[in-house]
Amino acid sequence: MAEINAYHGPAEAGFGDYVALLKPRVMSLVVFTAFVGLWVAPVTMNPFVAFCSILFIALGGGASGALNMWYDADIDAVMKRTAGRPVPAGLIPKQDALAFGLALSGLSVMMLGLAANWFAAAFLAFTIFFYAVVYTMWLKRSTPQNIVIGGAAGAFPPMIGWACATGGIGIESLLMFALIFFWTPPHFWALALFMNNDYTKAGVPMLTVTHGRKVTRRHVFGYTLVLAPFALWLGFTSIGGWVYLSISAVLNALFIAGGWQILRRTEDQAQGDSYKVEKRYFRLSLYYLFLHFLALLVQHWVGAW
C-alpha cells in the first residue's frame, strides 16, 4: 500500500515562542524591582492583592516587550544578538505580536486598577506607552540619547510597585527610579562597546555608532559618577540603613573603578583582548542593580526584625 504524505504547512508557534515574545529576562527585572518597591513601601498590602499586583505589572512589562518586538522586527533580524527572536525568526507573524501586545496591555492595566488602585494602573499604562511609542518608535531610531531618555521606561516599575501600596509617589520611589535611570546608560553603552557592529548594521544610532567608542567610554565613566550619589542617598531615606549603605558603598566603588578602567582603555587594547574589560563591566552592571534592590529588601527585613 502506497504511503500518503500530507503537507501540513509551516509549524505553528508554541507556548515557548509567546513566552519569548514577552522578553522574560527583562520581565524578571521588572518583576523584581516592582516587588521591592511594593514590599518596602510604608503601607502593608494584603498578600493576595500584592501577588496580583506584581502579576499584572509583569504582564504589562511583557506587553511592552511584545510591542517592541513587533515594531523592531526589521532591526532584530539584522542583529546577531536578536535574530533568533520569535518575530524575525518567522515563528510569530508581526500582526499576531501586535495583537498579543495590545491585548496584554489592556488586560494588565485594567486588572491592576481593580486589584490595587487606578493611580498605579494609569502609571503602568503610561510606562507601556513610553516604552512602546516614545522609546521604541521614536527615540531608538532617531537619537544617540535613546537609551538615556528611554531608560525611564525600565526605571518606572519600582515606582509602580510603591504606588500599588501607597496610591502615590514618595522620595523613596523617586530615588529608586533614579537608581535605575542613571544605571541604564553605562549598562547598555558597555554592551554597545563590544556589540557595536550589530548596531551599525541595523542603523541604530547608539552613541558608539554616532560619536565613536572613545566618547562612549567618557560617557560610561561620567554616568558612574552621577549614579553613585543617588544610590547612596537612598540609604538615608526611610527605607535605607546601615545594611543598604554598606553594600551600596562597595558596589559603587567597584562600579566607578570599572568605569575608570574603561575610560583609560584604547581601542587597540580592547580589540587585543576581545573587549574583556568591557564584558566584565557589563556583567558587573547586572550584579550592581540586582544587589542594590536585594539590599533594600534585606534592610527592610532587618528593620522589621
From TrEMBL:
Membrane-spanning intervals of the chain: 26-42, 48-71, 121-139, 220-236, 242-263, 284-302
Lineage, broadest ranks: Bacteria, Pseudomonadati, Pseudomonadota, Alphaproteobacteria, Rhodobacterales
Keyword Membrane in annotation: yes
Reactions this protein catalyses: heme b + (2E,6E)-farnesyl diphosphate + H2O = Fe(II)-heme o + diphosphate
Homology family: Belongs to the UbiA prenyltransferase family. Protoheme IX farnesyltransferase subfamily.
More info: Carbon 2 of the heme B porphyrin ring is defined according to the Fischer nomenclature.
Compartments, as annotated in UniProt: Cell membrane
Subunit structure: Interacts with CtaA.
Principal cellular location given in the protein's record: membrane
Protein name: Protoheme IX farnesyltransferase
Gene: cyoE
